[in-house]
Amino acid sequence: MMMMPVELVLLLALSCVILIHATSLGNVCDQRPKKREHIMRITEFGAVGDGKTLNTLAFQNAVFSLKSYADKGGAQLFVPSGRWLTGSFNLTSHITLFLDKDAVILASQDPSDWQVVDPLPSYGQGVDLPGRRYMSLINGHMLHDVIITGDNGTIDGQGLVWWDRYNSNSLEHSRPHLIEFVSSENVFVSNLTFLNAPAYTIHSVYSRNVYIHNVTANTSPESPYTVGIVPDSSENVCIQDSTINMGYDAISLKSGWDEYGISYARPTANVEIRNVYLGAASGSSISFGSEMSGGISDVEVSNAHIYNSLTGIAFRTTKGRGGYMKEIDISNIHMVNVGTAFLANGSFGTHPDSGFDENAFPLVSHIRLHDIVGENISIAGDFFGTKESPFTSIILSNISLSIKNSDSPADSWQCSYVDGSSDSVVPEPCPELKSFDSDYGRAEAL
Question: 439 pLDDT exceeds 70?
Answer without folding.
Answer: no
